[in-house]
Design goal:
Elements: E1 3-8, H1 11-14, H2 27-30, H3 33-36, H4 39-44, H5 46-62, H6 67-78, E2 82-87, H7 93-97, E3 102-104, E4 107-114, E5 120-122, E6 141-145, H8 155-164, E7 167-171, H9 183-189, E8 193-198, E9 210-213, H10 216-228
Parallel strand pairs: 1-2, 1-7, 2-3, 7-8, 8-9
Antiparallel strand pairs: 4-5, 4-6
Helix pairs in contact: 6-10
The structure holds 2'-O-acetyl adenosine-5-diphosphoribose.
2'-O-acetyl adenosine-5-diphosphoribose is lined by residues 9-11, 14-15, 20-23, 26, 37, 88, 106, 146-148, 172-174, 176-177, 198-200, 202, 215-216.
Length: 229
């Protein structure tokens, strides 16, 4: 085995104290997704959207990587082949655990983006919707997050990597949000071995060759130890 692609979701950061979206008490049970995670919501009330992501950013900056993030960083360090992490998470806990080969397909809380000119820069801890873009001065600063109705980042690179992988592993994601939820279909069609690691059964567990059930901080280190022999 030479190439492993790992897709992660909110479940990998849950035990770092960051909320998931669709579990009981998940973020989307408390916030209206259409108001805080769509371009239309941002156009209607940018201050509300910045408040939402400022709170997410504060939580993420105050959180620490857990044993699952650490184990994935160990996998990248010690595995003889390539390990790519494709994360739907907007926190930077994979990087802070030491993973270097990470694609943030839904963007990152650490980034700011000008909705006017497309300029990107590091986000301050608290973003202000009235602040001007450092490049074009337009008061159009937004978090560098991919919202519903927008195209996730680096899709070509991700699809090529999944297609060329020997093993595709989906960790802590509900499989409810496309295109990420469809990567397992792509892997399956390409004859790539597939593994799901999750606390709960997901809607389509039969799509995976193997399923490991349990909290990520226990299951991921055990699986990494198995791979590294
Ligand atoms: P969800 O909240 O939809 O799903 C979280 C998954 O993590 C569920 O399947 C849980 O069973 C699992 N889980 C919870 N705690 C766990 C633990 N300790 N160990 C292992 N698994 C655990 O979150 P995502 O699938 O990441 O997008 O959501 C996908 C996207 O929907 C997000 O990136 C976000 C959201 O709306 C945008 O905002 C664009």
């Amino acid at each position: 085995m030479q190439r492993i692609v790992v897709l992660t979701g909110a479940g990998v950061s849950a035990e770092s104290g960051l909320g998931t979206f669709r579990d009981k008490d998940g973020l989307w049970t408390r916030y209206d997704l259409s108001k805080v995670a769509t371009p239309e919501g941002f156009a209607a009330d940018p201050a509300l959207v910045h408040d939402f992501y400022n709170a997410r950013r504060a939580n993420a900056l105050d959180a620490a990587p857990n044993a699952a993030h650490d184990a994935l960083a160990r996998l990248e360090r010690e595995f003889s082949g390539d390990v790519l992490i494709v994360t739907q998470n907007v926190d930077d806990l994979h990087e802070r655990a030491g993973s270097g080969n990470v694609i943030h397909m839904h963007g990152a809380l650490t980034g700011a983006l000008c909705a006017g000119c497309g300029h990107r820069w590091p986000a301050p801890r608290v973003m202000d919707h009235k602040a001007g873009c450092p490049a074009c001065t337009a008061p159009a600063t937004r978090p560098d997050i991919v919202w519903f109705g927008e195209v996730p980042y680096q899709m070509d690179k991700i699809q090529e990597a999944v297609f060329a992988a020997d093993l595709f592993v989906s960790i802590g994601t509900s499989g409810e949000v496309y295109p990420a939820a469809g990567f397992v279909d792509l892997a399956d069609a390409a004859g790539v071995e597939t593994l799901e690691i999750n606390l709960e059964p997901t809607p389509r567990p039969d799509l995976f060759d193997r399923v490991i059930k349990g909290p990520a901080t226990q299951t991921v280190p055990a699986w990494v130890a198995e791979i590294l022999g």
